[in-house]
Amino acid sequence: MITFKIMKKYYLLLFTIIVIVFAGNACFANNNRAEELVDKGVTFDKQGNHKEALKYYNQAIRVDPKYSIAWYQKGFIFLQNGHYDQAYSCFEKVTQIDPTDEDAWINKSAILILKNKREQALICLDKALLHIPKSSKAWGNKGGLLFKAGKLDEALLALDNATRFDQNNDVAWRFKGGVYFRQNKIKKAGECFDQSIRIDPSDSSAWKLKGDTYYVQDKYKEALLYYKKANKLNPTDLSSLMLKAETEDILGKKNSAIRSYKQALSLIRANQNTLEIKGKEQASISYAKDHMKVKRIIELRLKELESK
What we know:
Blueprint: H1 2-46, H2 50-63, H3 68-80, H4 84-97, H5 102-114, H6 118-131, H7 136-148, H8 152-165, H9 170-182, H10 186-199, H11 204-215, H12 220-233, H13 238-250, H14 254-278, H15 282-307
């Protein structure tokens, strides 16, 4: 009887080991198959064939529902095509499977911002930081949101963490400069914008903001150099173009100012056409009204300059 019990336990243990081994092999095989399917999907994704890519991502999820990369890729397709609710659901699935997936948390918060749910976006970033406390991206995005909400001291704390955990986070440096600029700490602001430019010289916003640090000090020649660079990098940015025109105007560069003002008018007209195509959303109406004010200011100034 004792021997039978021992043998029974032995066979039970052996059966359990076999099940675990086979289950492990099955999981491994599923993971490999899901990875292959995602790779095929990515190939179509790169070609811009999102419909075909989505088929492969869905197949990968059916093979291995816990393969987070497939969920992420699927979510990113939805995000690219403006299907924010579906994208959010996919990224939510990613963070459930792998709470340390930084990009999934960032994308979730970005979607909430796009849907004008800033408080929820902050909560989302705080949850991300519970799992990834050294995430420079999460700290930076949190700092950016707090900056836009006017909570400058809190924003600065978050942005300090962002640049501490990743000294090459150019966006965090730019927002940090924005905080110092609002606090009238112009020298510190300029240093932050310099860091942002050093990391990403193609960021037109950083060049424009650095120009602002000179503009507020009446150093118009220096400001103009930065506005010109910002405008060259992003010719469709009305803000840097207008600042360039105004600075040229202040410096008495009449012909250059006229050209810049006229370019700004052309840009406003192009934007108005785009808004008419998009429809009469509230945001578009507000945007159009602001542009109409700028348009009237430019037209009056052009009239004055051309009459001289």
